[in-house]
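Hi R.,

As promised, here are both runs. First protein below:
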Amino acid sequence: MVVTRAAEQSASLISKLEEAGAEAVSFPVLQIVKVNLDPEAKALLQRLEEFDWLVFTSANGVGCFLQWLDESGKKLTAQKIAAVGPKTASRLQESGISIDLIPDKYEGKELARDLMKSVKPGSRVLIPKGNLAKATVTDALQHLAKVTEITVYETRKAMPSIEMLPGKVDVIVFMSPSSVVYFGEAAGDRQQLYHQNTAAACVGPVTEEKAKEFGFHKRISATDYTEEGIIKAVKSYFREETTS
């Protein structure tokens, strides 16, 4: 199996895959980079107490936002905190931050639906995000609340050596649509070798749709958008393959 996550984020998934009996290698096609906040964004952090809600749609957003918060000398006050899923929530809890809202299904649409039920009209909502993040929550709340987005990290393309890829690959793990795109660019002409016989294990339907667009005939889509969900989906796929 090939894991396309950023190098600093792949160890956990690779370890779990190996525990499950798979041979896994890292082929990091992207990197996560904390951005340099512009003066407007820095001024925003100084007015953090004006916000009623902080909404985190990724663990990367949590890590980079908390770094900026620490560097600015600001502290969270009485804001309510929403997290898209358990990994994002865990990053917050590691810093002693309590979670007020987490959806049952770990995706942006579900987070947006739950927030629409919880956020009071006229509330101020701050969403620390990455440069490629969709505006799902913002779009859902814009007629209910005053929503501000702040980009705290960028997802950038990495170009790992093609020699890092093993000769035979049964599964390639994609945790985002951008990882599918960047894998295609990193693999070059060699990507055609995988489209027919290699399964693209995708963290959800949006990522699966991108894998389909890029030519992967075999696709696995996790219904639980976590590392554990990916592993469960892969196991289920291969059980069905061997019994069919």
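And here is the second one, sequence first, then its structure tokens:
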Amino acid sequence: MLEGFKKFIFRGNVIDLAVGVIIGSAFGAIVNSLVADILTPLIGMIFGTPDFSGLKLGALNVGKFINAVVSFLMVGFALYFFVVTPMNKLQEISRKKEPEVTPASPPEEIILLREIRDALKR
């Protein structure tokens, strides 16, 4: 039973997943800081207030919901323009640098064997 657990834990996928979760968590902190410390104050300078939590509609606290939606959109904006777009550009550049692989002609022995095969079929 412990042997099976050991195989499971040291399997490559589990380690990759663990590393991905940890890196994702650290990266989430970076994106949250970008939104909270840079984009939100920028919106506050442009529109006057970056916080809508004071807005209420009767007993409903609509402002917190608006804050959550705006925060979600800012995180999406930050991820797209500061991560996805540059990564796509880098991948595009790396694809251009890779030479196209043209299939090499088969060795003479293969050509000869194909001719013999075709002659036997006839």
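A quick note on the second one: The radius of gyration is 29 Å. Let me know what you think.

Best,
J.
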